[in-house]
């Protein structure tokens, strides 16, 4: 009962403050789980996706606090106008979650220049542009929280994902640099680094590769895959005043995988 009462108070406070969030890549997977956590707690959430049908369906499932934000973030020149439109419509942008990203599994020596640059363009450059544009509006209120999504690929070497690993390592470095640059404007910047989380995509991949699945679980002290909601909970912590004196940090949500032996 006490836990339920506390949750209700927290939700009331969030609704009272009329918080607005943008979550990129939010029509599926970890982004969807994060958007659900926000919407369920009264945060108006702009759900970004490049597929209109999929994004509208996600918003319908998430309920009235979800707003569609349909844009391919590879189109960098369209981001400033899109962000300004959201800021005008919502009145403010309090939270940005940079979740959108792509991966590619390929032998190191077979990766082309174009493929490498494509991953960096989506996973790094679009994050920079989104953060730069959103922070301009956060600065006006002298408050805001930006949460980047990294990966265990930035913590240790994983074979056949050189471009993805480079991009997520860059995200962690950007997180620290952005935190220093934006602190004077009341903007906090942190990063969540998911371990092996059970999504439809990862579940199928691991189930089709028993050797890899066993390796993952054997070095995870908690002995299981994480749930998408585990990431949503961590992002929610960073997004709200529960972490008001926290910036520039990287939080692994991995069941201990990054420290497992």
Automatic annotation (TrEMBL):
<dbReference type="GO" id="GO:0016491">
    <property type="term" value="F:oxidoreductase activity"/>
</dbReference>
<comment type="similarity">
    <text>Belongs to the short-chain dehydrogenases/reductases (SDR) family.</text>
</comment>
<dbReference type="InterPro" id="IPR002347">
    <property type="entry name" value="SDR_fam"/>
</dbReference>
<dbReference type="InterPro" id="IPR036291">
    <property type="entry name" value="NAD(P)-bd_dom_sf"/>
</dbReference>
<dbReference type="Pfam" id="PF13561">
    <property type="entry name" value="adh_short_C2"/>
</dbReference>
<protein>
    <submittedName>
        <fullName>SDR family oxidoreductase</fullName>
        <ecNumber>1.-.-.-</ecNumber>
    </submittedName>
</protein>
<keyword id="KW-0560">Oxidoreductase</keyword>
<dbReference type="InterPro" id="IPR020904">
    <property type="entry name" value="Sc_DH/Rdtase_CS"/>
</dbReference>
